Amino acid sequence: MSYERTRISKRVPFRYTVFYGPTNPPEHTSFVTDISETGICIKTNTVYKPGTKLYLVIETPTKSY
Hints:
The chain is 0% helix and 45% strand. By secondary structure, it is mainly β.
């Protein structure tokens, strides 16, 4: 039985700094590696339980989100 998944949204390379964590302000720093209509991928060494709400601050050259 094959469980091949098809991506609905194309991932786009996106490398900017992100501050993340369960507290505000976020205490960890890493990088966003790609972005799509349905989410972002953050490369981290920190693992959180599914369902954990995280604060994110993404830094671009012109603005913080």
